[in-house]
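Let's sit down with a protein and look at its sequence and fold side by side. We need material for that, and I hope you will provide a protein of your own picking. Once you have written the record down, we can walk along the chain together.

***
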Amino acid sequence: MVHWRRWLTGLILAPLLVLVIVKGGRALFVLLVLLANGLGQWEFLAMLLPGSERARRIKLIVLGSLLIISFCTVQRIGYLCNPSGPLFILVWCLFILMLFYLVSYGHIPELSRDLAVNAMGLLYLPLLLGHLVWLRFLPQGQWWVIWMLAVVFGADTAAFYTGLSLGRRKLYPAVSPGKTWEGTLGGLAAAGVVGAAAGRWLLPEAKIGSLTALALVLGGVGVLGDLFESMLKRQAQVKDASHLLPGHGGMLDRLDSVLFAAPAVVYARLFFM
């Protein structure tokens, strides 16, 4: 039953996602990223600070949204995206966060924990997810975003079903008991195939060898992103970040690999491709 829900959710959401990326323009794409970030941050705080008030969660979502928007100010310095906008906003977000706890005397007993979790909520989600905005704003950005998502989700699906049917040796049981070496290798193989096939169609000007190599890198960093989120869920003692997406878990469960993959694609494009 879980598998049917998984596929049904994907078949409904995938065409809508592609439509927004290709036809929606940059503004609608940024709104989509803001929505994903807000839901992800809400789940993040619900897991790690389960007793936190709604208003305090919204505070972090507002700061994270400002950080996401700062990635819209893309300027090119030679072959580099100008990081001054996001860096400026990140510093001010951290400053506002520390100021908030400075005047919230009631938080003194849990100060270090709460402040650390909130700071991580900025660094882990909007700072990494903002690279999706950078990628979309670069030349041919919409096709690069679709290519990256195809590789990440293709590798994730292949790893899931390969591990389910052939998995024997656990990859990292202390963090994610369900992941196996066989599933991981199946995901990497799928990443390479999808990267080459989708690249030939979506990015005909790019070299297939370079796209295949980058796809394999994405397969690897996607596994790391998945394991990192599993570690957070392990601490929170939850199976999924939420039940928002039937068969998939929460928004954070869908973003875990993307958070690590998006910066990898951006910097590969800027430095090597």
